Amino acid sequence: MPELAHEAQDGHFEHVRECPACAALLNRQRTLASGLRTLAGDWRSVEAPVRVESRLRAAFLGQAGLAVSHPATRWWVPVATWAMATAAVVVLAMFLARDRQPVAPAHRTTSNRVQLAAADPPADLETLGDPSDAEGDFIPLPNAARIEPNEDLNLVRVEVPRSAMIALGYAVSEDRASEPVEAEVVLGADGLARAVRFFE
Amino acid sequence: MTPSLPETDDELLIRMRRGDERAFLTLYRRRQAAIYRFALHMSGSATLAEDVTQEVFLALIREQCGFDPERGTLSGYLFGIARKQVLRHVERGRSDVALDTEVESSAVPELMESDDPLTFLIDREGIEALRRAVLALPRRYREVVVLCDLEEVDYGEAAVVLGCPIGTVRSRLHRARALLLEKLSQKWHHRPGVGALKPIRCLI
Fold this sequence. Notes:
A: alpha+beta; B: Rna Polymerase Sigma Factor, Chain: A
């Protein structure tokens, strides 16, 4: 209590020495100050439980993780990825809505990373596809632009209703038509879908 | 080789906002005990104090935390959040019931023993009575005692925490101490051998 020292410096001790009432009051205030100091000292070791730190640490890492995963210098990466995926889904949906029969591929090329399949998928699937996970090779989408030999392509994986396979010539039972199936969509340099292949 | 000075709270906060986990932990470990004790002294509830401590530092983690170094210290800012959190819980009525009952024995440190029978506030019973008297103070007096007397926050910083002028802090402290003496006097009078003592005042 700084006030007590202040009072002492003001020469109040002279009065206190002669006044028993003030001496008693000052003594009580000093005792209270001493008691508060003792209480503060005794509680100095009291801390929050360790579990609070654990929870806060997890919360901090969660928060920091979000911040670190989106560095400002590369903000366009997720934006571009989502834009391309959205474009692919839109193009695919438009194609399916038109309910067209698959047409023969305009070309087949091996110069690109993507190898296009023939229009008759069942025959080609076993021979040209990657047997590890894909049903077959890429089927070019009708009305899609031609893939140029040195064109920079992007691959986006999406999920579409299995009924989408019907339009590309696959046999799909009616009761499974609404099930989702994964597909990879080839996007051209212009962001438009060129070809697709399905995964089981 | 001169030892490097410990980083200030503000420096740690800057690093923390860049995602530095070590900076956050250093800051937390530096400040958590005072915040926890403040909430515990204010509420008497270890559970509530734990919740408040967590909420205070969660607020700091959030990017939208409104700490402004121009307006005060980080410590004062944390006390301010803790105070609001305690008040919010008190308004909900959670801590009123707990005031004298919920302080867990593990949370209360061993108090000093004294052989001096004349010094009421030094023995274990006296200090415990003092703690209870602080807890029983009206909230606005309790918070100044806890901040200034128990956590040794200076009056200026306490004024920022409480959002009042520094003179108000002084007057509340004065009144709070008078109330504490009154409460303790009542208990003192019930102690064997001191019943004859009465409060006295000087009109000078």
